[in-house]
């Protein structure tokens, strides 16, 4: 009788099994900026939050389209780059200065086909301005670029403003038809207190200590700056971009609104 | 062989047709344990006459629900007049041997001692020091400190630390069965799921059925029941918090050693079938509250009749 009573008391729980009810805690305060591009346009980049942004389309195009996406149905699509005639083509979205003195910059990339840049395809670019207006001349500080390795694989390389490339901790091949993440930690400083660290899918590629920006007025840009393509492949998708106060890592799920 | 060793001993004889062999053995086992506390040996006689033991008992099963305990050393009608009849009908089968043994022990202790005790003053003093053992309602209040931890799940690295709690439990039993109420009071602690941090305050309260088994001064208590807990969750990223309740089942065990004030060691497992999914924008689901909680505790319990 006693055992039967215990069973009757526990039976509803056994039938329910283990389930979870959702508690939505709202916006994560660790994000300065983020976009999953589910607005269907680039308004997240140009309008959202206290810091503005802009879009640059020169010879190539970057826009938000329905297509391969890490979260939802939309992502940034870079296309139309055809610099086979020589010269650079550029298509970038940017977040304006002032950016936090210390922050993590993360974005996910998808190459439907392997790209074949002759020298480089810049995926992410940090540049500085002389003042807060943004009207002054800019200076390229650091870039993460796709470049060929010795065995003709594509890998991510860090490019310094004076074209000095710090030695990599390790090099990983860039995957094709698979989303991969690049995340950068930057402490903005014009002296040796500056630091820049880069990860690919959570694996540390570079760790640079030294001046990272000539001024505090920094911009973060995603898309492409490419010199020359050896094959017609020229498509790149970017999704789930964010500037955060903590490292996201590569294990988090797709963004949701 | 009776007596098995030199020393004080008691003859026990079973009479009446209502005894089963299993009942006889169970009563002997419990009574032997009780007598050992007073350094008295037990001798089971299968037929009369009894030998000149220090004491002797006849346990008469009048019917399956009534047993008469007779101090057989007394002669004739006086003996039967001084016995005790126990009604066992309200007790579960497995509680009857202990109840009979406790009562028999009490009957023995209420008898005048023979001279043989005087020849062994150490044993006599030891026996006198032992408090009478009752089989009526019995309460325990236990207070301890412990560590509790939840087996939380989520994507990526997560930290579910153990954290200290003040454990309080009170139980009331009769003939080894009863109920208990308990709680664990602790402060809030931090959980992290893939670097998303949450503050969690959890206060569980449980109501359990309680089974106590005694072996001399050693006691083991098993609890099985329901637990309801108060939850307060706060995201350190967004600052938003929720207050919720969760319910589930609890299984606990506590072992202790002593008489009226006994140190104990306890452990409990709680299973909560319905948990909570922790969501943030834009991360989505970053983790879940624990479906299983494990607690360990040490402390002191006070036993009273």
Characteristics:
heterodimer, A: 257 residues, mainly beta, eight-stranded antiparallel sheet, six-stranded antiparallel sheet, 7% helix, B: 305 residues, alpha+beta, elongated
Short description:
The complex is a heterodimer of chains A (257) and B (305). By secondary structure, chain A is mainly beta. Chain A has 2 helices and 15 strands.
* Portion in helices of chain B: 10-25%
Give the DSSP E fraction of chain B (strand runs of 2 or more residues): over 45%
Cα-to-Cα separation, first versus last residue of chain A: 52 Å
Strand content of chain A: 35-45%
Question: How many DSSP H or I helices of chain A?
Answer: 2
Sequence stretches where pLDDT stays below 50 over 5 or more residues of chain A = none
Low-confidence segments of chain B:
74-80, 114-124, 126-134
The rough form of chain A would be described as globular
Mean pLDDT of chain B: 80
State the total count of DSSP E strands of chain A: 15
What oligomeric state is this?
A: heterodimer
Helix content range of chain A: under 10%
Question: Strands, helices and their partners?
Answer:
The complex is a heterodimer of chains A (257) and B (305).
Chain A: H1 2-16, E1 19-27, E2 31-35, H2 43-46, E3 53-58, E4 61-66, E5 74-79, E6 89-95, E7 102-110, E8 121-129, E9 138-148, E10 154-160, E11 180-187, E12 195-200, E13 203-209, E14 217-226, E15 236-244
Antiparallel strand pairs in A: 2-15, 3-6, 4-5, 5-15, 6-14, 7-11, 7-15, 8-9, 8-14, 9-10, 11-12, 12-13
Chain B: E1 9-15, H1 21-36, E2 41-45, E3 55-63, E4 66-71, H2 76-82, E5 84-87, H3 96-109, H4 121-129, E6 138-150, E7 158-159, E8 163-174, E9 177-186, E10 189-193, E11 196-215, E12 218-235, E13 241-257, E14 261-271, E15 274-281, E16 284-288, E17 292-304
Parallel strand pairs in B: 1-2, 1-3
Antiparallel strand pairs in B: 3-4, 4-5, 6-8, 6-17, 7-10, 8-9, 9-11, 10-11, 11-12, 12-13, 13-14, 14-17, 15-16
Helix pairs in contact in B: 1-3
């Amino acid at each position: 009788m006693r055992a039967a009573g215990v069973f009757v008391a526990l039976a509803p729980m056994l039938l329910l099994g283990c389930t979870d009810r959702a508690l939505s805690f709202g916006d994560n305060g660790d994000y300065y900026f983020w976009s999953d591009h589910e607005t269907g346009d680039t308004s997240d980049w140009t309008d959202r939050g206290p810091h503005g942004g802009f879009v640059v389309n020169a010879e190539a195009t970057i826009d938000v389209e329905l297509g391969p996406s890490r979260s939802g149905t939309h992502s940034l699509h870079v296309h139309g780059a055809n610099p086979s005639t020589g010269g650079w083509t550029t298509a970038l979205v940017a977040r304006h200065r002032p950016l936090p003195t210390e922050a993590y910059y993360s974005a996910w990339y998808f190459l439907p086909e392997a790209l074949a840049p002759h020298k480089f395809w810049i995926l992410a670019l940090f540049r500085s301005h002389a003042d807060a207006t943004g009207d002054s001349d800019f200076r390229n500080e650091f870039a993460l670029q796709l470049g060929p390795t010795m065995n003709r694989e594509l890998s991510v390389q860090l490019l310094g403003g004076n074209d000095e490339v710090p030695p990599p901790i390790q090099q990983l091949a860039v995957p094709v038809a698979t989303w991969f993440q690049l995340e950068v930690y930057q402490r903005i400083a014009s002296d040796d207190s500056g630091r820049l660290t880069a990860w690919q899918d959570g694996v540390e590629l570079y760790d640079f200590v030294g001046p990272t920006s000539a001024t505090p007025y920094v911009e973060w840009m995603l898309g492409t700056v490419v010199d020359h393509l050896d094959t017609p492949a020229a498509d790149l998708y970017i999704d789930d971009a964010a500037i955060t106060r903590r490292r996201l890592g590569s294990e988090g799920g797709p963004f949701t609104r | 062989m009776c007596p098995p060793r030199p020393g004080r001993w008691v003859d026990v004889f079973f009479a009446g047709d209502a005894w089963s062999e299993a009942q006889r053995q169970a009563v002997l086992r419990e009574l032997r344990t009780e007598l050992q506390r007073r350094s008295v040996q037990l001798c089971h006689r299968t037929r009369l006459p009894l030998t000149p033991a220090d004491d002797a008992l006849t346990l008469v099963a009048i019917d399956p629900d009534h047993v008469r305990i007779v101090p057989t050393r007394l002669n004739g009608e006086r003996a039967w007049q001084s016995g005790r009849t126990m009604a066992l009908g309200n007790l579960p089968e497995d509680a009857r041997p202990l109840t009979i043994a406790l009562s028999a022990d009490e009957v023995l202790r209420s008898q005048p001692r023979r001279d043989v005790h005087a020849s062994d003053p150490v044993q006599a003093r030891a026996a006198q020091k032992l408090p009478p053992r009752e089989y009526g309602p019995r309460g325990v209040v236990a207070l301890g400190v412990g560590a509790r931890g939840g087996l939380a799940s989520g994507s990526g690295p997560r930290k579910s630390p153990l954290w200290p709690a003040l454990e309080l439990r009170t139980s009331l039993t009769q003939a080894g069965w009863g109920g208990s109420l308990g709680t664990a009071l602790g402060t809030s602690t931090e959980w992290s799921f893939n670097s998303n941090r949450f503050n969690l305050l959890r206060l569980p309260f449980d109501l359990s059925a309680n089974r106590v088994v005694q072996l001399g001064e050693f006691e083991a208590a098993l609890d099985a029941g329901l637990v309801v807990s108060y939850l307060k969750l706060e995201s350190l990223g967004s600052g938003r918090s929720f207050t919720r309740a969760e319910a589930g089942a609890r299984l606990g065990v506590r072992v202790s050693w002593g008489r009226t004030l006994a140190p104990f060691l306890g452990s409990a497992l709680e299973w909560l079938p319905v948990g909570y999914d922790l969501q943030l924008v834009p991360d989505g689901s970053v983790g879940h509250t624990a479906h299983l909680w494990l607690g360990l505790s040490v402390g002191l319990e006070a036993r009273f009749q």
